[in-house]
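Input/output pair, single chain:
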Amino acid sequence: MAAGTKGEDTRSTVLGSALSLATQLGLEGVTIGKLAEHVGMSKSGLFAHFASKENLQLAILDEAAARFVALVVAPALKKPRGEPRVRALVDNWLAWSKQDFMPGGCIFVVAGVELDDRPGPARDRLVASQKDWLSTLAGAARIAVEEKHFRKDLDTEQLAHEMYSIAIGYHFLRRIGDPARAERRARTAFERLWTDARAT
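Output:
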């Protein structure tokens, strides 16, 4: 039992390093050899954990998704139903790319640029995670309609799409421009969306 726990701890530590590297080098840039050198392990030791570069990529995406749920989604679900929860999801999302474990910015943006035209399991996993996130945003908006915070004729799927588009733009612009200005602009855009969505 103890050995299994130690193995899981090692895997978790290694995945944290792999995720950090992937934000800087892309998923393709994180080879088992490069990761082994980075974490001070043997290639054979890492191979025992992941078996292939493809499995490593999938594990990085799964680790990122788990952290996203823990840092962005779960805390927001503790907020009151309706607009407060929608706002919390966005606040947490804007804070997401500032995390220390992603020195190269949002891993989903990095992976999206890298995998958008590269079919395979990694792309499928990324697409599934982003569809889940869009569904979460739309679901939170539907609850806001039920709570009469947002108008009953609101197209919640469209709102989720626009929220996603604003945030992805923010994640790009904070990397290539002034991060504070990018966040102010994004928040202004979100406020405009919510003003339009509110029940009158």
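Residues 121-146 form the longest helix (26 residues). The radius of gyration is 19 Å.
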